[in-house]
Model the fold of this input.
Amino acid sequence: MKQSIQDKIELIKQLAKTNHSLSGVSYPQVSNSNDSLLQGIRNKEDANLFMAELDAAIKVSQSNR
Amino acid sequence: MILINLEDIYAPIDVAEDLSFMTFDSPIPTGTQLIKIKITPLEDGLLPNVYNLCFGPLGPDGEIDDAVSVPHNDKNKVFSTIILFALTFLQTNKNFTIGLDGSNEVRAYLYHRMFITNRKHLGEFFVSLGVDWYVRLLRNFEIEKNEDGSAFFKPKPEPFDYNRSTRDLYRYYMFHLLPE
Done:
């Protein structure tokens, strides 16, 4: 990775470390429940299957580079 | 067409300690527009290593309004800023995968074109994936259904097919950090 890009990443990380939360402002911890991915995941079994397929797709993508 | 250049981004204004959000100003014809990028886990906790990325200006309720169209002076720089923040998040959380919801036709077209146009540059850092929805045909030739009788469509991820045109968009777009 170019050093100039890594420098920008480090700047963001540094800002994160020095950040202080704004008083009185709370941020939601989870995404919107309307995320379309969740609509096809009913239970743990569906989730495990999706994650297994995701891991396999990632491995195939990496080997195809 | 969105051209990503991770060396040319807008300066971050505010960054959450856990990298769950970042804000920056995007110049527009009438001044600047504050943009917030948010990366959060999916709601029900069933996919613990999958995070959703959304971005946009803040609405009256203080939340991101990703439906509004903003006349950015430099869309390339806006998206480069978003992608660099995603890269920062994934560098810190190497086993996570980030998802972009393509349920909105305009956004899906944008993501699809962005992945294709920037294949080489993004390929230096990420593995790109697309997700389609499928319904299972059962042995009795009926389709798998939900409890309410509607077809049960399951998401199925695959390596992003760069030969796939924008007339055949994925439903969901994902990317994962390349191993070092």
Residues 47 and 135 of chain B are 20 Å apart (CA to CA). Strands of chain B lie at 12-15, 21-28, 31-41, 50-56, 97-101, 126-135, 153-159, 172-177. The helical segments of chain B are 75-92, 105-117, 119-123.
